[in-house]
Fold this protein.
Amino acid sequence: MSELKAGNIHTLDLVSQEDVLAYVDKLSMRDQEHVLLLSRLPQRRLLEHIDLDKVETYWVTTQDVMGSIQPSLDQISDLVTKRVGNHAGIAIIEGIEWLISLHGFSEVLKFVMILKDSLHRKPWSILLVVAEDIFDEIQSAKWHREAPSWEVPKNVEFTEFANSEDEHVEVTPETADEPEDTTTSLSFLVRIPKEGYSKDIVRRRILQWRRMGLDVSGAEPALFQESDERGFEIYKSVEEKVRKAVELDNRLDILEENGWKSEVTKMRFRIRQLTGFDEVEKRIDELI
């Protein structure tokens, strides 16, 4: 299916929240529109998936904390319609099934109709994320009359700089996240060259590493350096540690196949913290 078009409201069937957040992350990379996300996850969890500097986020919760919004149809509607009145953008609202459980189907459907009206001649689109199996046949027909189904396109575009060794190349959408080795849960990602270094690219790489389960907090200071040269040095030191972790993880697969499952689990945890490489490598040599 095509990209969301301005002035439309659609429904995305919730299959995987990670897929939804990956789409939000890619939207934020384009810098073409304002991205508003109302999520059932708090910001500390969203940080693992998206750049909070580029996405306006609210945690939909009954807790009264900073960055939250109550699961009130009026409050959510007021927030979204105010944003729609300015700029251009995309609003993604998760947890629709929870709102239905709180307020009932009819009230939430009215809420959707209000949002739909607010989009008239506005450069905004709205995506409602909902587990559609909560609808009966009649409800489904009514719902999709107001907010037709939509799927995330398979070719959402974004670019990233990387290289194999010394070359400076621009990575295409098909190869940007392509691993050099896909035989393990940790994967080699193409290197970021000094010439292609930027804070935005490093921020996205940190997110990629976090999704692998790596503790790359050591790379975060690179995001706050005034000098890109100093930032690159910090990033590069962590990148080398990550590559060493991937190499060791590859070797742990052999041990796991040989029945050392418990020991492998402990060692995998250590290398994902980017610590204890010498001890882990020594133990691997002993067991293989």
Notes: Confidence is low (pLDDT under 50) at residues 156-184. Residues 228-257 form the longest helix (30 residues).
